[in-house]
Amino acid sequence: MKNWPLWEVFIRSKNGLEHRHCGSLHAADANMALENARDVYTRRMEGVSIWVVESKHVVASNPENSGELFEPAKDKVYRHPTFYDLPDEIKHM
Amino acid sequence: MSQKEINLLEDFEQKIKDDVKIEPKNWMPEKYRKTHIRQISQHAHSEIVGMLPEGNWVSRAPTLRRKVALLAKVQDEAGHGLYLYSAAETLGITRDELFEQLHSGKAKYSSIFNYPTVTWADIGAIGWLVDGAAIINQVMLTNTSYGPYARAMVRICKEESFHQRQGYEIMMTLCNGTEEQKEMAQDALNRWWWPSMMMFGPTDAESTHTAQSMEWKLKRKTNDELRQMFVDQTKPQADLIGLTIPDKDLKWNEERGKHDFGEIDWEEFWQVVKGHGPCNKERIAARVKAYDEGKWVRDAAMAYAEKQAQKEAATQPISKTA
Ligand SMILES: [Fe+2]
Ligand SMILES: [Fe+2]
Predict the structure, then answer these.
(1) Do A1 and B23 lie within an 8 Å CB cutoff?
(2) Which of A73, A77, A87, B133 is the most buried (most CB within 10 A)?
(3) CATH of region A1-56, choose from 3.40.50.620, 3.30.470.20, 3.40.50.2300, 3.10.20.520
(4) Burial class (CB in 10 A: 0-12, 13-18, 19+), B286
(5) pLDDT tens-place string over residues B300-316
(6) CB of B116 closer than 8 Å to CB of B278
(7) How much is the ipTM here?
(8) Which residues of B touch A6 (CB under 8 A)?
(9) Residues near B302 by Cβ (< 8 Å), separated by ≥ 6?
């Protein structure tokens, strides 16, 4: 018999905050994944909303490509406010 | 080793040095992966098998308050096992392989769970001492180098403190009770003290894994350091409720600022590790029985899910696929 597939669990801890990945679990289908996520990850009111997605549907970047993907942002310091010189009199900008 | 592998290894070692966590898709030495699978799964198995001695008392807890607390604790331990199995699976082993290793006896779990829970006071002693010892180890592991393991530990540590408190409260209540109740508490301490001390593993001089584990920052403290913390923490707690730790060599060492304590019976430790403890066979038999008898449920759930998926596909409007 086939094994239950793996699901990734995302939980919104309270309204106003984003869903955050909190772990994974096995379940036969989406409903069971939600129920199991409730039992495994929210036994102490850690959440007000749950997302589950089958792990095989998550597309992840490859750490080997981290260089090409993320390094170009390193030399773009002009994207940060501290790059710009302003007179000291301007306190908040 | 190819140049590429040398670079990868250097990058890995730099991460460890800089306290940058290792994540599942990052390159890691094969030995790091294997060691982590072994350690994390051993930890997961301990959580799962650990439910058995305590589960033994759920139906016979003396009050409803004690019963809901124990039930919640045992349920937490199931959760801990699941967090840890998931963490182990990120290293490329399946849940089924992990179960198979436990059931066949290939994988170990903490030897402490091979001791029986013969009185209600044992539930107090387990929460106080066994969870207490586990917490010391697990707090250290929140800083471990493998990301998924460290994150699981953070969740677990948040949940553990009630476990220890409920155990200590049971002991305290017994100590404030009749003479017989107090004796029961003392008897439980007598039986659980040394096995709890053994939970930290062999002495540093004997431990084969310590050096490598420290280098990888899998462990941040040695077995002996952790054991010392446990003794120093527990002794005043025992004094407070009038219990005596069964170690005649246990005394405060002014110079060291720590307690000295007696020699552990390592012969007993290795006997239990090798499978000759009082409950080794019973524990594994209970796990295998639960797993085998649950098979039809797992199969039925999967068959149902597949059927539902097929039905859904069949009723999908044609325009959607066009
Ligand atoms: Fe636990
Ligand atoms: Fe616990």
Answers:
(1) no
(2) B133
(3) 3.10.20.520
(4) middle
(5) 999 999 999 999 899 87
(6) yes
(7) 0.87
(8) 89
(9) A1, A2, A3, A4, A28
